[in-house]
Amino acid sequence: MNRLTVVGIGPGDRMSLTLAADEALQNCDLIAGYTVYVDIVRPWYPDKEFLATGMTKEAERCRLALEAAEAGRDVCLVCSGDSGIYGMAGLVYELRGESEEPEVRVIPGLTAALAGGALLGAPLTCDLAVISLSDRLTPWELIEKRLVKAAEADLTIALYNPASKGRPDHLRRACDILMRVLPKERLCAVARNIGRDGESVETMSLGELAGYPADMFCTVFIGNAAARLIGGKMITPRGYRDV
Amino acid sequence: MNRLTVVGIGPGDRMSLTLAADEALQNCDLIAGYTVYVDIVRPWYPDKEFLATGMTKEAERCRLALEAAEAGRDVCLVCSGDSGIYGMAGLVYELRGESEEPEVRVIPGLTAALAGGALLGAPLTCDLAVISLSDRLTPWELIEKRLVKAAEADLTIALYNPASKGRPDHLRRACDILMRVLPKERLCAVARNIGRDGESVETMSLGELAGYPADMFCTVFIGNAAARLIGGKMITPRGYRDV
């Protein structure tokens, strides 16, 4: 078939797949991806062949998937959330370069900001920024600059990768930077294990968020100036004049 | 059933629905929404009852949907793209207030940035901002400020509502503002009619974008400093060190 489809699988529950993603995964003959994501989809498509690679092996993973497609297979490369946002679609195109073989398709998926936002209520009704706190590929100084500018612009901010074992204090550092611009009372929230066992949400102030024990399974939301709790939900009113 | 489900239907093609959205729409007994979005889903669920309201009637639409749910019906309120991002979920919660009736659920959907990004290649692999150029609910001065800060932060920017009949020159004005910060050669793109008849994408420079005849069916992408064309696709390389 000589085709590689980069599939965003959403946060981790099968019902968050799009019909297009489900169809592609059902009809392909090899599902490739990072071990953790392959283990998520394996029970949904138990009869498929799987090719799992470990953490930080992004280029190797994409190369193997491209090679399998070039060898005539119909391959899906799965990404958690969206296939583009912090996903593998870009790297696949980079590695394929100017070649037209194999055919590459990208199927988008629900990124954590959307899935977490729906759990929390409606924090993302207005203009927003998505910023990762991982400094593996982005210098920390640039991340700091982005946080400050996004806060100055009164954007609602979704923070990805707020912490990991190797950088347990990134969320505290980010909050300290944000509090140079925003009041420590600003409404914030954490969505944890979205679409997976132990799914939960919590709302808190920016000051409280600075001390929150986040991990790599958390997505963090920083409200804009209008954000508030309504009926226990985090809402950003848009200001409809007929309300 | 006394339930209102706010459903993000994605860009407009049925395959972009999530399994959860499809299930909710199949099982409800009334589908409410803006006329244009109701007309999109009507052929997919021809046996349902529909309740369509006109443009700018957002609060009326949400009130009618809440009232139908309170009266015992299982109602889906459909939103184009995501149910949260510029969608109706926030307004529904605002209007319900502190009441616990009816039950409200939010099902997220593929917002145009994700769907358009996948068509273009992978422009959104890194930190990003989503900004609407509609000044119906947001003062233009604040939109200008957000554009400048997002550009200064080297965020990839997805622009929603780049133009409409009432504000045909907003995209030009936005580009003029962005060119105070960004070079006019910066890679940009337009995705038009995503998921609908006449779907197309075009890439161009920021200078060219300023003269582009955008309409309300366009989603615009402003690349960050790393964005480039690879094999005809708009890609933002993330800088994996093992490539």
What does this protein look like?
The structure is a homodimer of 243-residue chains. Helices cover 30% and strands 25% of the residues of chain A. The mean pLDDT of chain A is 96. The first copy, chain A, has 2 domains: 108 residues, Cobalt-precorrin-4 Transmethylase, domain 1; 123 residues, Tetrapyrrole methylase, C-terminal domain (Methyltransferase, Cobalt-precorrin-4 Transmethylase, Domain 2, 2-Layer Sandwich). The first copy, chain A, is an alpha/beta fold. The termini of chain A are far apart. In chain A, strands 3-2-4-1-5 form a 5-stranded parallel β-sheet, sandwiched between helices. The radius of gyration of chain A is 19 Å and the shape is elongated.
Task: Provide the fold topology.
2 copies of one chain form a homodimer.
Chain A: E1 3-8, H1 19-27, E2 30-34, H2 35-41, E3 50-53, H3 58-70, E4 74-79, H4 89-96, E5 103-107, H5 112-120, E6 121-122, E7 128-132, H6 140-152, E8 156-160, H7 170-178, E9 187-192, E10 200-205, H8 206-209, E11 218-222, E12 228-230, E13 233-235
Parallel strand pairs in A: 1-4, 1-5, 2-3, 2-4, 6-13, 7-8
Antiparallel strand pairs in A: 8-11, 9-10, 9-11, 12-13
Helix pairs in contact in A: 3-4
In brief:
The structure is a homodimer. Chain A has about 240 residues and is of the alpha/beta class. Chain A has helices spanning about 20-25, 35-40, 60-70, 90-95, 110-120, 140-150, 170-180, 205-210, and strands at about 5-10, 30-35, 50-55, 75-80, 105, 120, 130, 155-160, 185-190, 200-205, 220, 230, 235.
